[in-house]
């Protein structure tokens, strides 16, 4: 048996701008960052330095924009018909509602296999949760020690050391050198990180001797810029799994701002450059000294206020102890005032009592006479009411009080039987009677 399908739900009505933003957010969450290979068409460079073109192949075409900052990093001049590989982010140009690819880097084709390998590994590790933001930790505000992994011959080492020496010369830095380029680089970096992990765990153990093992609260993994082949060591799967096992927050500063590696996604925080990585973990010493000076000033002001208040109390106490005669004089004056108030109060009380006594002497006879008259009148009224209740008055009207031989009043014929002896009390005496025949009314 088939049922007729119900009416379809009405679609949501979107504002145009809101729909464009929603599409842009979906593209950002689903694809970015992304790399594309294609042929350049319609290339133009504006006076502002921004570049506009399209990437196409046999099956499609994609509008692209490359802003001046990224265009200045190009090491060749793009031309129409040239096969290139670009990296960047998909978005929506809301003014026209067009799909647009924001190009952050471009190079001639020939490295596509590496990009494909990069994207496959990125998708795999992302599915496993290695990139989840929930597991990433905030950087310590003031690390006690900084671990550093890089090549001793790299310019990145000089940049990082210079930045740290300028900003936090008091924080110890533990350098574990490693190769950062070539086939041997991934195992070398993994070994260096593993050594730092052991040092970090030892320095954080209870009772650790910091003179032997300075506590490492953050690790920097840095390398200067280069081509995708130069940075390929940081796209190693085993290295990615080693990074996420770090016992302390780890900052990746590999390449330039437009360079992305698997290590960047696995690290707790990605820095655009090695120098930026050093600056992220090193708040300038002057800032802390300024804050410390401010706190010291506030503490000093508070202590001085307390000292001044104690001095004032001490002066007051010294003034009281230095002139006891003044205190005695004040107490005597207070005692005299209290005695005067007591004498005045007693005098007023006596005057009131005299007035009450005089009033009683004048008003007492009259009040007594009125009270006697009132009580006499009340007594007369009570006697009258009592007389009115005398039962003899009722008997004088011809009624009789009937009782049995025991003196109990007989109020019903049911209490008398034929032959019973009863007594009828009248107004002037009593009559003994015998019941002949009781009759009900």
From TrEMBL:
Localization terms from the record: Cytoplasm
Keywords for this protein: Cytoplasm, Exonuclease, Hydrolase, Nuclease
Entry-linked InterPro entries: Exonuc_VII_L, Exonuc_VII_lsu_C, OB-fold_nuc-bd_dom
Chief localisation class: cytoplasm
Top class in the EC scheme: hydrolase
Catalytic activity: Exonucleolytic cleavage in either 5'- to 3'- or 3'- to 5'-direction to yield nucleoside 5'-phosphates
Function of the protein: Bidirectionally degrades single-stranded DNA into large acid-insoluble oligonucleotides, which are then degraded further into small acid-soluble oligonucleotides.
Subunit structure: Heterooligomer composed of large and small subunits.
Protein name, as recorded: Exodeoxyribonuclease 7 large subunit
Gene giving rise to this polypeptide: xseA
